[in-house]
Structure formats: structure tokens, C-alpha cells
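Posting this for the archive.
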Amino acid sequence: TLIKLEGENSIGSVYADRGVGIRAIASSGEEQALIFQSGSGASLDVSALQCTNAGDMTISGGRVNMNGEVYGICSQDNLIIQNGAQVFAKGGEYGAAIMLDNFNPGADRCDLTVKGGSTLEFDGELSIAGDIWIYGDSKLKIDGWDSLYPKGAINIEDGSELENNGRIMITKPDMTPEQIKAMKFTGTGVVKVVIEGDEKEGPPEWRTFTNDGTPLNTVSESLDVEDSGQEDKTVADDGYAWDSESKTLTLGNVLVEGNIILPGGSTVRTDAGAAVLGIIQSSEGSALDITFTGSALLRIDGGISGGINGDTINVQSGAQVN
């Protein structure tokens, strides 16, 4: 199925939260190839419960937005983005922004290719049963702690880039820090590698690294520095240390997956790249009086939560807070 695009186009209605936006299915029920071919300046916006249902998909040129309530782009074969295409896909809580999987163990794997000066961004999860190829001055961008789940290899060539500001979830337990560094990921996100032999009930456990392969300590819940035992923590072993006398929280290579809770008058010193998925907030009943210092980047995705008269935030010279 060939769809030629000229000018601005959209698929959506009052029923945009139901059904499939674009479906390429033969009378036999088999998924068919779907090609979007754009003229100069052409665009397509699709809003639906699931934006596409097809076999091989090719998006050639133009700007394409797939805004799915559950699934954005859903293909049971390969996805190719080429000729300078600018593609954005969004999925919902119970689906994925992009799902490339034929769910048939005996079939060919589904690969993602971004080439020819193209860009792919997504909001949600990107799950790929095959390999990723990024080449020809192209980019795959992960933002806002969204997650990329690649089951195959990641190949980045010819001045191209995988900008990871979220999570790359590697399910090969033998992936080494040296191999992660060799990928030359950019951005401020993390790479998680599943732990081999993790056969316990519940979700798997992961080792966490920066984009350049530096191991990160992970705090899986909120960090309240006034909880019992916090003064026993060390930067070397735990990624952070709390000195109650000076009210100083020192952060090393650490990812805090919840909030950081501090008493008023605290200092946050960042000595190595650190990230907080939640917010930085004051202890109950105290003003948010915090000083940020140190020379390394501190990424705070949830923001800084104040709200009491007397809140003061001081960022000293050289500190980097994003």
C-alpha cells in the first residue's frame, strides 16, 4: 500500500480513541507493506487507539506524527525511516510508542532503520525484536526517561547519533561497560543491563550505567536523608553520602528513581553525574532552603518542589542543575 503525501494531512475524528488509524491487511488477513511517500513540505498527523497495523513500513521524507492512545507505530515487520523524514510516535501506558514484533519465533526479526538524514523521536516505549541501524547523518532520540528495548544489535554509523536522555534496556547480561562506551551514545540518560541468572519472582534486576559505560549506583525508592542509617552511606559504595552536621548531601555516580527529601538549609553537592527521576523537596513543615554546588551535572526530572514562604534556592558558580 502506497500513500503519497502532499501538503498537510491528518487522520482523526471524534472516534480517534478507537480502532486503527491506518491498516494494511490483505483479504487473507496477512499484514501488507505500507509506504508513506512525502512531497516537499508534506506532513501527516494520525490520532487513534493504534495508529498503524501493517507489515513492512517505510516512511520516506516529510514530517509524520503518530499519536496513539495505546500504540503509535505497530508493525510485524521492518520499519525504515529515510530521505530526511522527521518522525514522532507516541504510545499509551498499556502499549508502546513503537512496537516492531511479529510474535512468531520462526519468522524473521523486525529491524529498525533510520537513514538518509532522518530523525526518529518517541514518547513512551520503543520495543524492537530485531536490530537497530542508524546511519547517513541520522538520529534516534530518547527523551523524558522513555525506554528503548532492543533485542538485537545497535549499529550507529556515518556520523549518526543515538541521543539517550532516557533508558536503554539491554537484555543481554554479558554486555560490558567497554561495549557500552564503544556505542558512543550521547545525552544524559542511562543504560540498564539485565542481571544474568535473575530467576526470582517479580521483575528482573538491572545493572545501571551512564551512556559512557560508567557504573551507577541506583536508589530504587525515594531518598529521605533523615531516615535511619543514611549517615552510614558512602559515595564509593552507595553513590551518595549525608552529613547531618553540615546538612550536606554529596552525590556521586547515582540514579535516584524516586524523590530526594531534605531538611531546610541543606546543601546538595554533585561530584559526578547524578540524576533524580522524581523531585527534590523539603522535609515536612520546613522551607525549601537548598544550595546546589559541585562541578558535575545534576539532572532533576521532576523539578524542585517548594511552596512554603521562605523557600530559597541558591545555585553556586560552577554548579550544573538541569
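The mean pLDDT is 90. The helical segments are 177-183, 235-238.
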